[in-house]
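Posted in: Structural Biology > Protein-Ligand Complexes

Title: Requesting predicted complex, NAP in pocket

I'd be grateful if someone could produce the 3D structure tokens for the following input. Sequence and ligand are given below.
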Amino acid sequence: MAVAAPVNENDKPQTGAAGRPPKPRVAVAGASGYAGQELVRILARHPAVTLTAAMSSGASSTPRPMPALARIWDREVTPLDIDQLSASADIVFLALPEAASAEIAPKLLERGVRVIDLSGAFRIRDASDRRRWYPATATLPPGTIYGLPERDAAAIKDARLVSCPGCYPTAALLALQPLADAGLLEGTVIVDAKSGISGAGKAPSDRTHFSENHGSVAAYGVFSHRHNAEIEQELKREVTFVPHLVPLDRGILETIYVSLGKGTTEAQVAGALEDAYRDAAFVRLTGAALPEIKHVAHSNFCDIGWKVDEGRHRAALIAVLDNLVKGAAGQAVQNLNIVLGLDERTGLL
Ligand SMILES: NC(=O)c1ccc[n+]([C@@H]2O[C@H](COP(=O)([O-])OP(=O)(O)OC[C@H]3O[C@@H](n4cnc5c(N)ncnc54)[C@H](OP(=O)(O)O)[C@@H]3O)[C@@H](O)[C@H]2O)c1
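-- Reply #1 --
Done. Output follows.
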């Protein structure tokens, strides 16, 4: 297949300085969106890769400067061009609506480019569930891996397409997976989630309009949110998930209610979490000092706190993260670091 010529000197495969291998080239599609801008911000300063291209939507849009990224990324964001994208990068991040990802990712893979996708397009493995939640995705390309870095690093390393977890599922899975693995959970799990408005992307709607959500809190998507299916798929158990929009620009807080097996102690809950995250760069366990969104905003951390009611065999876990960083761009770069065999913290701390 013909590959378009790079349009900029920086886009050509880099020759390394004496004795050093060239840096891998990365590019971002969806760079004018909320998650895409975070990606550009992180990747432009990442010491081990070269950011070669940042693209917005298709041919009808024109190149535009990004004022928030001045002096961080001084090149323009250009209209999407798949040939240019694949010619200018070894690894492409897709921060696009899922239907666009579903269409573009296979074309990039065909051209030999590895893909890190932030959308939900490739998260659901069961074909009938996928038809319901992500109808634009006919099949999962070979080499697709669901990539929660703290859990899936071994598989992510060799993935052709890393499908990054959703923002709500990231917090829920990081809190719940260690308890599930330790066999401590009984019965249904309830995830009561609150998200800032940037979780809905930059296009305003009736629900996300400032005058609708300022001074208010609203539940939405009750029993009909696709992240419910994703959490259940990954946790392999039934979960009741109720998301709420809160009048913050960014951040997620989940209060997670679980029933524990009879006789389960606080020490067992703490031990399961501590064992899972002893070496995790971006999970901070706060125990009984319950975490807050402000502690993680603009960072790639997920903070998890908990209280256990031993007498009534139940626990509440509180998990917080920044939906645009650990819930999107930061986690995607953490996955890039795993793919490249780098320290997971590279460019993120
Ligand atoms: N926001 C979050 O907290 C969050 C968290 C985790 C995952 N995600 C996922 O990440 C993806 C991006 O989310 P976002 O919130 O950043 O969305 P967003 O703010 O709406 O940005 C969407 C981006 O995609 C581009 N785009 C739209 N339609 C396109 C098309 N047909 N072809 C090519 N480019 C197109 C837009 O370009 P223009 O500027 O030209 O329109 C823009 O750059 C979504 O799949 C979302 O589900 C988001």
